Amino acid sequence: MAKKVLIVEDTEDIAEALKILIEMQGYDAVVARDGFEGCRMALEESPDLILMDLALPGMDGLEATREIRATPEGSGTPIVVVSSYAAGAREQLLEAGCNEVLTKSSFISSFGPTLTRYLGGAVPSDAVASSKN
User: Fold this and answer.
1) pTM (2 decimals)?
2) By CB neighbour count within 10 A (0-12 exposed, 13-18 middle, 19+ buried), where does 70 fall?
3) Order of strands across the sheet with 79-82?
4) Is residue 70 a part of any domain in this protein?
5) Are 38 and 71 in contact (CB under 8 A)?
6) Residue 80 and residue 94: Cα distance in Å, rounded?
7) Span 5-24, average pLDDT
8) Is 63 exposed, middle or buried (CB count within 10 Å of its CB: 0-12, 13-18, 19+)?
C-alpha cells in the first residue's frame, strides 16, 4: 500500500502541483484547503506525512499544527511546513511541533529528499491498483 501525504494548502495551483509531484513519486496524496479541514483530515486519513502551508484561511498552519500535535493520532505524524512565510518563523514552528521548515522557493530542490527522509521508499500506486485485481 502506498504511503499517504496530506497537503494542507489553500492555493489551488500549488496544491495541485504538489499533489502531482507526490503522486509521480509513487505516493498517494490528499488535499485540505484550510487549517480546520487539515486537522480533520489528519485524524480521518491517517497520513504518513503532512505538508503544511502557514497562510491558511480560518485557522493558520501554526495553529493547525498545534491542534494536530495535541491528538494521539497526530502526535507522531511528521509535519513539514512549506510556506513563503516560513523563513522568519522557523524557531516558533519547530517549537509548535513541525519536524522541518521549508520555504516554497527551496522546496523544489529539496522535494525528493524530503519525501524520502520521512516516507522511505514508496510503493507505486500502479502496483497497488494491479495487486487488487
Assistant:
1) 0.85
2) exposed
3) 28-32, 4-8, 49-52, 79-82, 100-102
4) yes
5) no
6) 10
7) 94
8) middle
Pick 63 or 83 by higher pLDDT: 63
- 3-state secondary structure at position 4: strand
For the chain, what's the residue count?
133
CATH at 114: 3.40.50.2300
Mean pLDDT of the chain: 85
CA distances from 34 to 5, 6, 10, 108 (A): 16, 12, 6, 22
How many independent structural domains does the chain possess? 1
Q: What confidence tens digit (pLDDT) does each residue in 15-73 have? A: 999 999 999 989 999 999 999 999 999 999 999 999 999 889 999 999 999 999 999 98
